[in-house]
Amino acid sequence: MGLIKEKYEKTMQVEGEWNVGAYRYKAPEGYLDEFVRNFKDRKITGTLCRGCGRVYVPPREICARCFKEITEKVEVSQYGEVMAFLVSPPLEKGKVVIAGIDAVQAGFLKEGERVILAMVRFEGTSSSMILPLLNVKPEDVRLGMRVRAVWAEECKGALSDLLGVEPAFDVRFE
Amino acid sequence: MKVAIIGYAISNLGWDVEKTREEHVFEVAKSAIEDAGIDRKDVCTVVSASTDFLDGRTISNCMLIGATGAYLKDESKAEEDGMYAALYAAQRIMAGVHEIALAVSHTHSWIFNPHQISHYMLEPWFDRQNDLLNEITLGALQARIYMNNYGADELDLAEISVKNLRNAANVPYAFRKLHDVTAEEVLEAEMYSDPLTELMISPPCDGAAAVVLASEEVAKEICPNPVWIKGIGNACDNYLRDRDLTRLNSLEIAARRAYRMAGIEEPFREVDVAEISERFAHQELMAYEALGFCREGKGRVLIEEGMTEVYGDIPVNPSGGALAGDPICATGMIRLIEAAKQIRGEAENQVEDCRTALAHAQWGLLAQKNLVFILGDEP
User: Fold this and answer.
1) Is residue B187 domain-shared with residue B150, that is, in the same domain?
2) Domain range for residue B315?
3) Which residues of B touch A11 (CB under 8 A)?
4) B377: how many CB neighbours lie within 10 A of its CB?
5) Is B268 found in the same domain as B141?
6) For tag attachment on chain B, is the N or C end more exposed, with fewer CB atoms within 10 Å?
7) Residue of B124, B130, B144 lying closest to A130 (CB–CB)
8) How far apart are CA B140 and CA B184, in angstroms?
9) Cβ under 8 Å to B: A residues 7-36
10) Does the structure's ipTM exceed the value 0.85?
11) Domain count within chain B
12) What are the tens digits of pLDDT across the range B140-183?
């Protein structure tokens, strides 16, 4: 606690911090068991609602539309569609951490490069994920473009195994 | 049971104002009570609205009991926009429990960066693992989806900013007033996240607002020109990843509920003026469609044809909207007050023959929750 600045005649600036410390969020069961652990086998898992047939990725344990618990798990396609994208300012080392790894330090992005984040809807799912879009220049990105998941060379069953998505030009979508 | 707005107050919006939080709230609560022509002892219940994160303390209403006049009275706090405080106050009156209610809202954005907090609104397991996501970058994503789906372009977004910021030039309390801004200037302003430039994003600022609500009996007795609440609609959508971001579904449902309660069948013809909380320029276009002022995807036609200017067929945000100043929790309440001012004929950019006004507030990331009030000049 500390410094008191007399900035104005009428008010003072009292500096303080609100250090609430670390939280231990409880993730839904399907999130860890199926979703993240299946990354080891390069699989993307979602949950299927019995009520409306919607598939949620990452898994949701409750379907808001049906007000039902979701228990069924399904594997979803590695291919998806770009719903929206945005281009970040140039990267600095140690500044941008995505899924627990520093993109610059890990080497899959260079310092000063721009990250493209894409909102991706994997085939057959009803929710979207925001992932880095790799191996493409910002000016070549088109909305509705087909992409596929990019995996780390060695998958350990952690969130950082899914590096992002890249354009899938080999697939024709009709 | 009918409810009327009988008094209101808006503070000056500014950055780093020379006032404490308590002084700011005291100022508006006092002037709203004076404006209503009543005394603190007549107020039965007080609802305040602010967020603990932006106040930098939890249960932040505890320190405001003196300032809001809630000392030894029925009091609660909504961790939401001020218009929700007005909603809960109105519901208390409708229930017949209380006669006069005071709703107060405030935010001092200067004390802590509000965009840092928006990162904590994200789901912690997946989205929050990505440092690049916050309200502005997500807003840019939403703008991209909307523009791609309906063929709107950056110029349409810029025109929204131009309209609102020019309107704000006449409003004495507004924070960002640019009376001769052009679309080129908006497009050339600093790029925050493509396609959103600085002038397309609502500027967080310090401000407070208060309204006094009363039951039909009391309002008719003590107030010469009460503004009546004719319709209320409220709806909350899914988390942003699980919903269709191209449209504001929850706003559409909220608006439909409010129109039904107020007996409005053709909003474009029956609503005289609308005050909308748009955190980003594209959200105003999306709101035109959700509120039923035009068909889906045609929001840009309204702005291109100038229909939403003060002189247009359906003026939207004659006060400048949230783009002219965004005291986060007070933004929606200021829209409600501006709508009431239009009915009373006291607004700076007064719309002619204004008898039905619409006010809208949003809360949550990318307008997850939406609330619509319809105000009228007779019960």
Assistant:
1) yes
2) 119-196+227-379
3) 18-20
4) 18
5) yes
6) N
7) B130
8) 19
9) 8-11, 16, 18, 23, 25, 27, 31
10) no
11) 2
12) 999 999 998 999 999 999 999 999 999 999 999 999 988 899 99
